[in-house]
Backbone:
């Protein structure tokens, strides 16, 4: 496993990280989650990402149970705040940030998180209030660093312009061969300001593994057929997308790797990406994902892949 520095922080994070969206505490049983976490550590994965809203606290609770007893400095732990935790609890106000960080720490059974991220931008709260509250979270020792997810370039720049507050070190956008929007403005702006990308859905929720074939039933046991996990990926299961992905397989074969590894290596070719977050319901999935770290692929093959998917667009 290779490691990269996270922005202007002193955190060194594994190129492949383990996330818990739609999985632990929600769609995957505790024993499977435990097996995946143990395998992640064996593979050198040290970066774990979650959020308070995943399962309304369930994912954090599972992490807390499974991480109990491990040396706290042996892993990098990240969570998020913004989405509703109740009918009245949501957003990035000072009151919510102070309440939610304490609740997250309690569920995670730790005194601090390494990275506390704004899950989205809160247009209903003054940005100065949000940044001040996040700064106090860091200065109180409850978080070491702060980050954001899916903020617009204008929102990011506005945060950078506020004096006397803690600086963001991470951005968590959706980014993959099939979703390249961050390359336009977010990545250049981040790179110029000491912010790294921690990307979610680098495999387009599994579509870039190539296991979903156009006109065929989704494989048994896959995310697409899961009641708890499948609804979020339906927009990826379009015939033109699946057909384009099948055309990528010969390129991966030429590179001497699986399409999953090829797709993750494509994301990691970007220097501003510190880590690609993957989900896993079985340890063997992590074995394959982790093998993408440090994988050398001819840039010409990546260029061919980009050309194949260039005209493909996800609905909406």
Residues:
């Amino acid at each position: 496993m290779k490691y990269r520095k996270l922005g202007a922080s002193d955190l060194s994070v594994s190129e492949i990280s383990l996330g818990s969206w739609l999985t632990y505490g929600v769609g995957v049983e505790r024993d499977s989650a435990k097996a995946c976490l143990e395998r992640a550590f064996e593979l050198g994965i040290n970066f774990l990402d979650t959020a308070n809203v995943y399962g309304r606290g369930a994912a954090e609770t599972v992490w807390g149970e499974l991480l109990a007893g491990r040396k706290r400095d042996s892993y990098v732990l990240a969570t998020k705040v913004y989405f509703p935790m109740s009918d009245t609890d949501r957003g990035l106000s000072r009151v919510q940030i102070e309440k939610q960080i304490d609740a997250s720490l309690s569920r995670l059974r730790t005194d601090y998180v390494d990275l506390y991220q704004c899950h989205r931008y809160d247009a209903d709260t003054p940005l100065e209030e949000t940044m001040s509250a996040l700064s106090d979270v860091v200065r109180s020792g409850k978080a070491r660093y702060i980050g954001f997810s899916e903020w617009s370039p204008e929102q990011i720049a506005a945060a950078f312009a506020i004096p006397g507050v803690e600086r963001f070190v991470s951005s968590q956008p959706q980014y993959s061969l099939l979703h390249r929007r961050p390359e336009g403005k977010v990545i250049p702006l981040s790179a110029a300001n000491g912010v790294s990308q921690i990307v979610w859905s680098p495999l387009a929720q599994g579509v870039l593994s190539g296991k979903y074939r156009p006109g065929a039933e989704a494989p048994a046991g896959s995310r697409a057929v899961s009641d708890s996990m499948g609804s979020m990926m339906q927009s990826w299961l379009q015939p033109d997308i699946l057909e384009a992905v099948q055309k990528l397989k010969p390129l991966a074969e030429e590179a001497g790797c699986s399409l999953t590894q090829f797709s993750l290596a494509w994301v990691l070719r970007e220097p501003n990406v510190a880590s690609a977050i993957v989900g896993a319901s079985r340890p063997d999935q992590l074995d394959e994902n982790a093998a993408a770290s440090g994988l050398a692929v001819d840039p010409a093959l990546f260029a061919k892949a980009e050309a194949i998917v260039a005209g493909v667009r996800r609905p909406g």
Notes: Strands lie at 3-5, 12-14, 16-19, 47-49, 76-81, 113-118, 143-148, 168-171, 196-199, 273-278. The domain at 3-203+264-295 is CATH 3.20.20.100 (TIM Barrel). The first helix runs from residue 30 to 42.
